[in-house]
Amino acid sequence: MMRRRLAVKPLAEVRAMMRSAFPCPDRIATLPVAGAAGRVTAAPVSSFLTIPAEDIASRDGFAVVSSETVPAGSENLVPLRNPSRVNTGNAIPPGYDAVVMIEDVAGRDGTWSTKRAVLPGEHIFPAGSEIRRGDLILPAGHRIRPCDIGALLSCGLTVVDVREVRVGLIPTGSELVPAGSLPGPGGAVESNTAVSAALLGEAGATCTRYGIVRDDPVLLREAIVRGVHENDMLLISAGSSAGTRDFTATVIGELGEVLVRGIAMKPGVPAIVGRIDGKPAIGLPGYPIAALTAARELALPLLAAWGFSPPPVERLRARLAGTVTADPGYDEFVQIIVSRAGDGYAATPLPRGAGPQMALVHANACLHVPRGTGSIAGGTEVEILLTGQCREQGEVCEPARDREETVPVKGST
């Protein structure tokens, strides 16, 4: 019997629909500051401490009354009256208003003199000069960096409120076995949800992988009900096509509604976007490259719209070493091996049909062929998304800020 052809929708249209259909969940988690890197602040974060708490020395030397040093010069040593020895970071004793650096002092204990006059406040960090209690450290919506952790801890904070989004991932398929198990004939180790969880986790999502669900609509329904209840977004791996054991669309439709079934995106055409209890339920194809593409091109942009973005990635310009054949009716994502070629880069498309797992390992870049483009001839200069190191003796592509031919990418393709 001939398989029914999906009436696919353009990728850009699907993304726009998802942004309007699924508002950002209002979930907040309180985390230890030391473990909050990569998370997004839920509210402005203010200092608990005034730093420094009092005037401190910014140089090693002697705390003095500045007016007593005014006559000093290279040929006119001025005795210091009752100087107080301080090191960098020491509190300035009451009654003193400047520090004479140790390099500008001559003499010995009890008979110190200076050859340089100092002004009031010179070589002193005033109290609160770095930050005062109640001052802003980080604004709301800020992605916490490692350096921010030091500032938060130094300002007296041990926990921080961050925005949280929970993503559940359900693997389906009677042929699947868990990692560490030996698959039988026709079987496979379940890995798609691990890959998607790692991808979405980089954007700051809290991901939960559930156990493998066999090809049974009753079991799948139970798993989806639980997953929707416990998460803000649900990804169901496999079962999105039109085979006799593909139940994802049917179950989503019974529990909510199927918004999109079939997307003009290769790989990933059979992907599903549904809504259950107001939450997105995304059906991923079972083929590993298609599953990764669908997670990257559907779930990741929605997370970004909610304020959860992965670390910045890089693009560069490269010349195709072979022709890329693409359907003009689809957005296509082609696995590429990019390498140095003289002063530029060469991009070699991986052959279609290559092993689904190892193709992702061997590729170090991805070429997005936008809908309406069609095939691209060899020798054409294209923009590619880096996913790994440039080839040629292990050389790593330079960051965008250091090279004219690379530019930062703020989101996914």
UniProtKB/TrEMBL annotation:
Residues 168-305 form the MoaB/Mog domain. Pathway: Cofactor biosynthesis; molybdopterin biosynthesis. Keywords: Molybdenum cofactor biosynthesis. GO terms for cellular component: cytosol. SMART domains: MoCF_biosynth (SM00852). One of its GO terms (biological process) is Mo-molybdopterin cofactor biosynthetic process. It comes from the Archaea. GO terms for molecular function: molybdopterin molybdotransferase activity. PANTHER family: MOLYBDOPTERIN BIOSYNTHESIS PROTEIN, MOLYBDOPTERIN MOLYBDENUMTRANSFERASE. This is Molybdopterin molybdenumtransferase MoeA.
